[in-house]
Design a protein that fits this description.
Blueprint (H helix, E strand, L loop, with lengths): L10 E5 L10 H13 L3 E4 L14 H13 L3 E6 L15 H6 L3 E4 L4 H11 L3 E3 L13 H12 L3 E3 L5 E2 L14 E2 L4 E4 L1 E11 H4 L14 E6 L6 H12 L9 E5 L9 H9 L9 E5 L10 E3 L2 E7 L2 E7 L1
Parallel strand pairs: 1-2, 1-3, 3-4, 4-5, 10-11, 11-12, 12-13
Antiparallel strand pairs: 5-14, 6-16, 7-8, 9-13, 10-15, 15-16
Length: about 325
């Protein structure tokens, strides 16, 4: 199941199912809204989006109410999460998935939102999207690729062949917009050759793993799993988190693995990642590619959780196409 495409004039509701909008500066809120309005959308904010408690979030009930209201409001066509965090999985047992299924909307976010997106897909079959937060649209420079991919996925393309961005950045742009650091993008590389087609699930690996053993974990059968992690995941923790995923029932039916770019402070290298992948006998049968433009560096492409992907990795050439 997928929601209608977005079109000019559509309302996008901003919700905070993880951290509060209170941590975003007024200037960045203004910039993000201006960017979305320049794309033809109108922007509204959920009632509790800026409520902040001891955990820089709001109560489970506040966040659930905001999500339900966003799905129930006939004027709202898309939903953007404010930012990530640590506690989005608190909501999963309190959501009314019948409301979400009856009033499908295009929900987008990444990082901690991985728990919400995959749970919605598991419980309703509704496609949601791993892509920019509302706060991401406040980025003044180096964001064209992110905006373009989001717009193409949300407003019309039946399929999107993923091409690498020319440059990438891992700087704290939200602290200093005028002094940015960009690197040439070497693009994806192959860790295991092969070809695959399957349903896309995944996102942030440590968050995705929170769903293991719960009713909110989507089936791994016939899937291409997209994973990434942030600076908190060092090579040893990424290794064990990946191993935990591999141990899940049904992993033998996974068709391929796509890995997003690591942040520099994760200390992951191509050589270390290759050793991690080669140490997993379960991965030897499937294509694995890495260093793609999604995760906690910028820019990023948007991909559909519950959509489909085709993947080819041969020699020095990779091809990844995503479609709903």
């Amino acid at each position: 199941m997928k929601a209608d495409l977005l079109k000019p004039g559509d309302e996008i509701r901003i919700v905070s199912p993880s951290r509060s909008m209170s941590i975003i500066t007024e200037e960045q809120i203004r910039l993000a809204q201006k960017q979305l309005e320049s794309m033809g959308f109108t922007v509204s904010y959920s009632k509790n989006s800026s409520v902040s408690d001891d955990f820089t979030s709001s109560s489970v009930q506040d966040r659930v109410d905001d999500l339900h209201e966003a799905f129930l409001d006939a004027n709202v066509k898309g939903i953007l999460t404010t930012i990530g965090g640590y506690n989005c999985n608190q909501l999963l047992g309190s959501l009314d998935y019948s409301v979400i299924a009856a009033k499908p909307k295009r929900l987008c976010g990444y990082s901690d939102i991985t728990a919400l997106s995959n749970a919605i897909y598991a419980k309703t079959g509704l496609i949601s999207y791993s892509g920019p937060h509302f706060s991401t649209f406040a980025m003044k420079y180096g964001n064209d690729y992110t905006v373009d991919c989001f717009n193409r996925m949300m407003t019309g393309n039946a399929s999107l062949r993923i091409e690498p961005a020319a440059q990438w950045s891992d700087d704290a742009w939200f602290l200093d917009q005028e002094n940015r650091s960009f690197q040439t993008n070497d693009g994806p590389y192959i860790l295991n050759e092969g070809m695959a087609e399957g349903t896309i699930i995944g996102g942030n690996l440590c968050t995705f793993n929170l769903l293991q053993g719960t009713p909110f974990m989507p089936s791994l059968s016939d899937t291409i799993v997209f994973i990434e992690d942030d600076y908190e995941s060092q090579p040893v923790t990424f290794d064990r988190d990946l191993q935990s995923l591999i141990h899940q029932r049904g992993f033998e039916y996974v068709k391929g693995l796509v890995i997003g770019r690591f942040q520099r402070s994760s200390n992951m290298t191509r050589e270390l990642l290759a050793k991690i992948i080669s140490s997993k006998a379960e991965l030897a049968r499937i294509p694995v590619i890495a260093n793609l433009d999604f995760g906690h560096t910028s820019p990023m492409f948007t991909f559909p959780i519950g959509g489909r992907a085709t993947l080819a990795a041969r020699g020095m050439e990779t091809s990844l196409t995503i479609f709903e």
